Amino acid sequence: VDAGNLVTFTPVSVEQGSSNARIPHISNDYEYQTLIPWGTPLVSGATGYDGDPDSRPTADEATRQVGIGHDGMWFYPENNRYSDFVANGYQLSSTRGLLVVNHEYGTNGHVLGKAMPDSLEDVRLSQHVHGVTVADIRKARGSDDWELVTDSRFNRRIHVNTEVTFSGPAAGSPLLQNLAGNPPMGTANNCGSGPTPWGTYITCEENFNGYFGSNEPDRQNDSAQDRYGFSNNGFGYGWHLFDERFDLANEDYANEQHRFGWCVEIDPFNPDAKPVKRTALGRFKHEAVAIKEIKGGHIAAYMGDDQVFDYCYKYESRQPWRNYIRRGESPLDDGRLYVARFNADGTGEWIELSVDNPKPFKDGKTLGDMFADQAELLVFTRLAADHVGATPMDRPEWATIGKDGEVYWALTNNGARTEPNAANPEAPNTDGHIIKTVDRNSNRFNWELFFLASDTRGTENVVTDPDAAWADDEGRLFIGTDGGQPDGLQDQLVVFDTTAPGKPEPKRLFVGVSGDEITGYATTPDYRYAFINVQHPGNGSPAATNFPAPDGSGRVPRDCTVVLRRKDGGRVGS
Ligand code: FEO
Ligand code: CA
Ligand code: CA
Ligand code: CA
C-alpha cells in the first residue's frame, strides 16, 4: 500500500449525509447490512423483540436475547483460543467467529416504555438488557451477508445479575465485601472494550455511578462518592427502589458501589467461565482499553476515564504476558498502573500510582501516606490520580494503538473548560480533539496534537466529538462520533490516513440516523468486513426513525450492529 494514499473511497458528502436522518448513509463504494439488533433471540424457541411498540420482553426473556446499547466489541475468529494458538497458531477465519458486543445502556423510556420501574420485574428487565452478548456469527452460504448462529453453545448473555469474580490486588479487600455477604454479581454500563493478545475480551464499566441511588433525601455523599458522581437520583434508573444492592443508604450493601467501575475480562470461548474484574487496572469510569505487547514481551494497556477534567491511564505487566498465561495466571493481575501528566514541551510523564511510589506529591505526602494499601488506592484510583497532579483532560474516550505502536487518544469535548492547557488547547472545547502519544519508556512519553476537530468546521470533512477509535495495521484510523454533528449531519464514522503528510483529513464513510451515536469497531482478520454499532437510534422514538426496521414501519428503533463492506471486496477503510 502507498503511504499517504490509504483512504481512496468516495466520502459521503455533507449534502448526502444530511439529506434524511431517518436512514443511514454510506459511501457509494460501500454497502452495509444490520445484525443482532436488541431483542434478537440467541437460542431457538426464545421469544424475540422486534420493536413492536405494544409488546416488550419479560425480564426472563431478556436473558436469552441480545441486549441494548451496543458499544465496544471485538470479533474472535473461530478456533482462536490461546490453547489453539499454542498448538497451531491462530486460525484467522474471516467467515465465522464470536462477535462480543457491549450493551452500555438503555433508558427506562426506551426499555420499559415508562420513566420509572414499578416493580422488581421492571428493574430486572432493565438490568438484563445491560451487559455483554457473545454471539456466534458466520457468513451466510452463497451471500455476502452475516448471520447469527442461533443455538451455538458459545452464545451467551452476561448482565447485571451474572456471577463474576474479582482478581488482582484489591480482590480480597474488605472494601469489596458487603455485610450482606452477597457474592459479586454483574457488570454495568459496558462502554468500550479491547481484545487481549491471549484471545480474551475486556469490557469496560463506565458510568456505573448512575445505577445507584437512595430514597433517603438526607443521605449525603462522602468525598469519594462525590468524586465518582454518586447521587440520590442516579441517572433515573430507579434500580435502588426495588433492588437493595443499588441502594446507597442500605448499610448491608454499603460496598456494592465499589464493585463497579472496573475492567472485566471475559473468555468468549469458555461460556462457563465467570467474568473476572481485574482490579490492578484501577477503578474509574473506564471508557475502553487498548492493549499491546511491548519490549520484553510485557503488555501495556491504555485507558481513558471519560469525564470532564479526568485522566489518561496506562497499565504495564511486570513480566512477559506469556509467562503468566503458561502458569494459568493473568498479565492483568500483576503490574503497574500509571496516570499521565502532559508537559507543554511535548514530553509527558507516566506517574506510577502505587503506595510504594516514594515520591512526595501534594502537601509533601506520598501515595503511601494517603492510602492504607494498594487495594484502597485502586478502589479510589481517581483520588490517587488527583493527588499526584495528573493532567485534567477533555473527556478521554477511546485510545487505540497505531501501526508503529503510537497511541491515539480521542478527547471528545469539554464545554466546561475555561483554562486551556497544552494538551487541551481549546476553552471551551466544544468539538474535541485527538492526541498522539509515543512511549519512550515505562515512565516517559512524547505527545503531539494529532487532530483538532474545530479545524474541519465549514469544510466537506466536518466532524466533531471523536469517541470510538480503532487503528489498523497499515495506518488508517477509524473514528466514530458521539455528539450533535454540524451542518445537519448525524453521528458518523470517518477514516484518517495517518501516513498522509500535512493536516489529517477525515473522510466520511458512514452517517447514522437521528439521535444515535456510532460506537465500537471490529474487523474480520482479512479486513473485508468491519463491524460498527448504531447506538440509541432515535433515542428510542419511532417518530424519529424506525432503524433497523424499514422506514415507515412504526417499529421502535433498536440498537444494532452494522456490517460494512466494500462493494469490490477490498479492505474496509480503503
Ligand atoms: Fe460510553 Fe464515554 O462513552
Ligand atoms: Ca454512549
Ligand atoms: Ca464512548
Ligand atoms: Ca461519548
Low-confidence stretches: none
**Which radius of gyration do the C-alpha atoms yield?**
22 Å
Q: Compounds present?
A: MU-OXO-diiron, calcium ion
Widest sheet: strand ordering: 13-14-16-17-18-23-22-21-20
InterPro entries: PhoX, TAT_signal
Protein name: PhoX family phosphatase
Organism: Chromatocurvus halotolerans
Could you characterize the architecture of this molecule?
With about 575 residues, this protein is mainly β. It has a single domain (about 15-90, about 100-205, about 260-265, about 280-565), classed as 6 Propeller (Neuraminidase), CATH 2.120.10. The chain has helices at about 15, 60, 80-90, 110, 120-130, 225-230, 320-325, 365-370, 375-380, 380-390; strands at about 25, 30-35, 70-75, 95-105, 130-140, 145-150, 155-160, 165, 190-195, 200-205, 265, 275-280, 285-295, 300-305, 310, 310-315, 335-340, 345-350, 395, 395-400, 405-410, 435-440, 445-450, 465-470, 475-480, 490-495, 505-510, 515-525, 530-535, 560-565. The radius of gyration is 22 Å and the shape is globular.
